[in-house]
Amino acid sequence: MFALVVGLLRRSPTYRQAAPDVEVLLSLAAGAQVTYSDKTVALSQRARDLVSRVAIEAGVRRTVLSEGTFNAVEVGDLLASAGKNTRDKASRLRKKGDLLGLDVDGRVLYPVFQFDPTRAALREGVSTANQALNAAGDPWGVASWWLSPHGRLRGGRRPADLAIDGDTARLAALVAAAISQD
Predict the structure, then answer these.
(1) Residues 109-141: tens digit of each pLDDT
(2) For residue 144, which of 102, 105, 97 has the smallest C-alpha distance?
(3) Which string of b and e fits 151-172 if b means at least 16 CB within 10 Å?
(4) Can you point out the beta strands (E) in 25-87?
(5) Which carries the bigger pLDDT value, residue 4 or residue 158?
């Protein structure tokens, strides 16, 4: 089916230039793992950005799911939310930018590194970092920042490891550095 649509676009003088972008978008919609390094395929900047973003999200998704997540009810229970609808607590914190929540197949999941179960609270520095990094506006980008090895940390350590260790001073320095790069 993709070949038919792309073939029709390539034959049209009006839509010929859009054919590679449409092929990428259709492949992504079908769940394909798409990477283009072939210089004969000239993708628009928009399509290259989309392919890059999908690749980042796929990598972060694997990492997040392998390390563990909570759903909204579990977050509400962990944070001792009062009231009937415990998922409201997670939603409010996510919308405010305090809590990183990721849409995974239509469900919002919250990476576990953000929570300190012994205190029944968010870990120190997590809320401030999530707000500064714009977790509400770019959750997958922020998740990538938290869960990727950082060049300023030794041994493949990640910002999430600093949060887990309670090293709020180094975490704040990494956040400040990330913000100054933008």
Answers:
(1) 999 999 999 999 999 999 999 999 999 999 988
(2) 102
(3) eeeeeeebbbbbbbeebbebbe
(4) 69-70
(5) 158
Helix (H) / strand (E) containing 161: helix 159-165
Say what the pTM is. 0.71
Q: What are φ and ψ of residue 111, in 5° steps?
A: -55, 135
- Residues 6 or more apart in contact with residue 112 via CB below 8 angstroms: 67, 68, 69, 70
Q: What angle do CA 152, 157, 163 make, to 5 degrees?
A: 95
- The one-character DSSP state at 97 is T
Cα–Cα distance between 39 and 146 in angstroms, integer? 33
List b or e across 98-113, with b for residues whose CB sees 16 or more CB atoms inside 10 angstroms: bbbbbeeeeebbbbbb
CB atoms within 10 A of CB 131: 15
Phi, psi of 110 (to 5 degrees): -120, 115
| pLDDT 10s digits, 44-79 | 677 777 777 777 777 777 888 888 999 999 999 898
Q: How far is CA 108 from CA 81, 91, 142, in A?
A: 18, 9, 15
